[in-house]
Amino acid sequence: MTAVVRRELEAPRPLAELAPDLFPADAAGRLAAEWLAAKEERSRAAWYVEAEPLWLRKLTWRLARPLLAVGILGAVGFALQRWVDPTLGISLFLFGAGSFYVAVQVLAPLWERADRRELERVDRRYRERLAAILERAGE
Question: What is d(CA 32, CA 137) in angstroms, rounded to the nearest whole number?
């Protein structure tokens, strides 16, 4: 067991790759390795769905800041020039920023719903894989 821990210390590996070191090479060990691979796949999918609201919030703020800076520079530029009415220019920048915000707010729940459906699909596949493992184990 200490050899496995040392190898893991040198280079962390996915659970499925650790299984041969942790379990014997018999049928039960192969079933355990399959189970670990299925568990890891399910955990990764669940992490993505659970983490999405956080990265979406950060992503929108990271996109909104440059948009705000460009809007301020555009407003100053439109206020100092004489070719286009400054009110029209500033209005267009505000319309763009507002459209971006509305698009994110409208699309975020749709993205979340699609991700939840994907997680349900992964959970279903995980249960099917566990059922197949139990079937091969003779239970």
Answer: 10
| Per-residue pLDDT of the chain in tens (139 residues, 90 and over written 9) | 677 777 777 877 777 677 777 777 777 777 877 888 888 888 888 887 778 777 777 777 777 777 778 778 877 877 788 787 777 877 887 888 788 778 878 888 888 888 889 888 888 888 888 888 878 777 6
**Any idea where the domains of the chain sit in the sequence?**
2-137
DSSP letters spanning 54-113: HHHHHHHHHHHHHHHHHHHHHHHHHHH-SSS-HHHHHHHHHHHHHHHHHHHHHHHHHHHH
Q: What does the alpha-carbon distance between residue 103 and residue 7 come to, in Å, rounded to a whole number? A: 48
CB contact set of 42 (below 8 Å; sequence gap of 6+): 122, 123, 126
- What is the pTM (predicted TM-score) of this model? 0.55
